[in-house]
Structures are given as C-alpha cells and as structure tokens.
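Second attempt. The first submission of PepSY domain-containing protein had a stray character pasted in from the spreadsheet, which I only caught after the job came back as garbage. Lesson logged: always re-copy from the clean sequence file. Corrected sequence (233 aa) follows.
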Amino acid sequence: MKPIIFFRKFHKWLGLIIGLQLLLWVVGGFVMSFFDIEEVRGEHRIAMQAQADLTQPVPVTVNQAVQTTNLAPKKVQLKSWLGKPVWLISNDQQQSIVDAHTGDLISPLDESLARDVAMADYSGDDAIKEVRLIEEPLGEVRGKALPLWQVTFSDNEETRLYVSQHSGEVVARRNDTWRLFDFFWMLHIMDYKDRTDFNNPLLIIAALLAILMSLSGLYLVIKLIFLKSKRPR
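This time the job returned cleanly.
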C-alpha cells in the first residue's frame, strides 16, 4: 500500500474516532472562556463584612479555648467571625471555633448560625429560600469536608452558599452559571465521574489520537499540495 493511501485511511478513521471529542473540546473551551470566572465562582455576590479588632487582648486564652474543644490542635488562629473574635482550633481531622470573649464552643453550627453566616457573606437583597444540612457527598462540593450547611437564596441565579458546620466558614459558592460551566468542564477534561482529574487515561488517549490525526493531516497537506508530482503534458 502506498504511504499516501495509508495516511488517507488512517486520517479518516482517526477523524471518525476522535472527531466528536475534538468538537466538544472546542465548544467547551469557547463556553468556559465566555463566562466571567468571578460569576462562575459566585465571587460577585460576596459582601464586605465587619471585622473584629484582633489587636486587642481577648479574655479567653489559647489554652482555655483548646480545653473547651477537647481537640489535639495542630493549628490555632485568632480570627474575625461575624464581626467578633473567635479562636479557630484545627487538626488534620476536625476544626472547632470558640468565642474569644465568652469561651463558648460555637461549633458545630446550628441552622440559625448557618443562616447568619450566609447572610453576612451574601451581598444581594434576596431572602433565603432553603437551608439543609449536607452529610453525604455532593458533586457541587466535591473535596470539601462534610457536614456542610447548604443555604439557597431566592435570586435568579439560585445562589447556594456552603457553610462548614465545624469551621463556620463559607467553603464554596455555587449558582446556575457554575453548574453550566462545570458540565462543559466535565466534557473538556473527560472525567465523567469526579470532574477533577485532567490527567485521567481517557483524556491522555484522546489527546494522543488527536495529535496523530493532526500529524497525519499535516502529512497529507504537505504531500498533496506542496510535494505533488507534476504531470507530464
């Protein structure tokens, strides 16, 4: 078989195999570049929050806060939370927050406190539509430590804030734009389960086939256009 015939068939079959994925890569890249990444992440809805003065001494010491939590701390931090100073005590398995003025253990957060955290973080005027505790793995917050409070607002983006029950922090912000972006991200990286691994074997194989198709197409272009033999008159 002549090389030109082989590469024609090779290029054709590779195009049939990988052509759809090439289209999805292009479409997915276009869609993801079209959206403002701040809107995808929900950062345009973040409100300015009141900050506690952390330069002043607090009544509750580090040791008292640690004793309140019964945790073996790996890290202890004095931080501002809902406008007041709190101690955040962390180790590899768990986090807890203690009021630096009263010594009260705040975590795990109840629904009322989760609402307060979400309302303080949200810059819109919309009301909270629903609050529920997430204790099972959820695709929107994959990789985040559970349990989380999911606070959904009644805006046109269906903004959802996820508040850690232990640290009291907003650990994720989601909306309908994020869901659309995440769908095309899944198609782009070809990780149809976790949507996080862009080094998965399926993507590597598809990329290799796309490279081979491009190289075979380049060969055909050079051979048929630039190196074609001149026919005698």
